[in-house]
């Protein structure tokens, strides 16, 4: 049970943006948590004012453009005038004009932008989805979610890439260059991309000489990879071993192994809901036909979730329960680190919310996927993760707090308290 209290924020800066002596001296004397929280608040406040100023700028550009004033100012286009007058690049100028024009159509988004409630990054992220979805719903979502959480939510929605934009067809190209080297590039659907990513994981294991026949045993894979500094663990291979993973995949195909590999990250996840829906948890949704094709023809694992996002069961893709738990966790949290603002998909470790040494169970409700960096921050107590029934509170020392309600994406809620915190404060 999450309890929201009266919001108590640090003293805001003066109207002229000046800061008091305490903050000015911060760089010389870091001080305690209160000083850290105050500086963090001032940074956030300054960013908010930058956002409102940028909203005003784009509003003014929109008016300038709608009145067709560029020619009267000696330029052929609004973007050309911005390049000359503001000294910005062509790319930035054209982006400003495009966004300014669209904001004249979507008044709710423009209003939230001018209030500073939705920043420029989120505005750009939302624009392709507004034509085919309800504007008020999307704007409210943007107000509550962080950027990467919003990105994950939008991935399941239809977007507008232009009325005349042709339907994108998947392709793979390979061409020999004049110097004898080869170029390889591709554009794949979400389902095809997930299958390639799974194959690359198999290629990485093959590169590290993990026995493909024994790799169905999760412990065997982990033992092999523990001592390999170049292995990526969960997720796509890291950049420095991507080529080796790719060549390992090629060698597997050429050698025609008899048995398929069902190892961590070497399968395609499909999530099904209790009402019969199905989707890919990472990289956006896939058409029903694609999901059906994968179930019939691909190496997949099916996970069933309840209305709150908790995985009820996971199909058997390996022989050990720990493999299923890890796969279920990664699927529940979108295939990435659960820490707010972190989008790492590699080097994932499993964290016990209630410490295992203190009797915490190795059950899904007590486990959380964290990247090694975030896990270290939690272990060193720079970040606290508090359990409150089905909710998780991520508490930071700068005074900010994010709450993941019922295993959903964490949202900013600085004034929230766990029931235990509330009771202790009332005692």
Automatic annotation (TrEMBL):
Please name the GO terms that the record assigns under molecular function: endonuclease activity; nucleic acid binding; zinc ion binding
Q: Extract the CDD domains matched here.
A: HNHc (cd00085)
Q: List the InterPro entries.
A: DUF222, HNH, HNH_nuc
Q: Is Hydrolase among the key words of this record? A: yes
This protein's UniProt keywords: Endonuclease, Hydrolase, Nuclease
SMART domains xref list: HNHc
List, as start-end ranges, the regions of compositional bias called Basic and acidic residues: 19-31
Pfam annotation, one family? DUF222
Provide the residue span(s) of the region labelled Disordered. Answer: 1-31
Highest rank taxon of the organism = Bacteria
Positions of the HNH nuclease domain: 324-376
> What family classification does the UniProt entry report for this protein?
Belongs to the Rv1128c/1148c/1588c/1702c/1945/3466 family.
Supply the name of the protein: HNH endonuclease
């Amino acid at each position: 049970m999450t309890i929201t209290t009266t919001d108590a924020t640090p003293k805001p800066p003066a109207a002229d943006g000046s800061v008091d002596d305490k903050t000015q001296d911060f760089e010389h004397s870091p001080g305690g948590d209160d000083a850290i929280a105050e500086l963090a608040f001032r940074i956030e406040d300054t960013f908010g004012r930058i956002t409102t100023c940028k909203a005003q700028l784009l509003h003014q550009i929109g008016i300038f453009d709608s009145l067709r004033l560029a020619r009267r100012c000696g330029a052929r286009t609004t973007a050309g005038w911005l390049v000359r007058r503001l000294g910005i690049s062509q790319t930035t100028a054209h982006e400003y004009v495009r966004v300014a024009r669209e904001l004249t159509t979507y008044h709710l988004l423009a209003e939230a932008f001018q209030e500073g409630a939705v920043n420029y990054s989120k505005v750009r992220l939302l624009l392709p989805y507004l034509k085919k979805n309800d504007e008020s719903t999307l704007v409210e979502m943007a107000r509550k979610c962080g950027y990467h959480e919003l990105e994950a939510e939008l991935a399941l929605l239809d977007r507008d890439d232009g009325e005349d934009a042709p339907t994108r067809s998947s392709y793979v190209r390979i061409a020999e260059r004049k110097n004898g080297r080869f170029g390889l590039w591709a554009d794949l659907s979400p389902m095809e991309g997930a299958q390639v990513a799974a194959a690359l994981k198999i290629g990485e294991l093959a590169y590290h000489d993990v026995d493909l026949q024994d790799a169905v045993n999760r412990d065997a894979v982990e033992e092999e990879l523990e001592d390999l500094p170049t292995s990526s663990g969960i997720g796509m291979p890291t950049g420095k071993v991507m080529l080796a993973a790719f060549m390992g995949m090629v060698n597997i195909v050429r050698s025609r192994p008899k048995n398929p590999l069902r190892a961590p990250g070497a399968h395609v996840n499909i999530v099904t809901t209790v009402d019969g829906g199905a989707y890919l948890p990472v990289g956006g949704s896939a058409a029903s036909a694609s999901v059906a094709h994968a179930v019939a023809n691909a190496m997949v694992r099916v996970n069933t979730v309840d209305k709150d996002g908790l995985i009820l069961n996971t199909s058997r893709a390996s022989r050990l329960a720990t493999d299923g738990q890890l796969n279920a966790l990664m699927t529940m949290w979108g295939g990435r680190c659960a820490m707010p603002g972190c989008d790492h998909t590699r080097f994932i470790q499993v964290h016990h919310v209630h410490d295992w040494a203190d009797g915490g169970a190795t059950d899904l409700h007590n486990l959380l996927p964290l990247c090694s960096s975030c896990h270290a921050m939690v272990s060193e107590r720079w970040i606290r993760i508090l359990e409150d029934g089905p909710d998780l509170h991520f508490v930071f020392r700068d005074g900010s707090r994010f709450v993941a309600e019922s295993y959903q994406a964490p949202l900013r809620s600085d004034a929230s308290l766990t029931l235990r915190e509330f009771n202790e404060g009332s005692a």
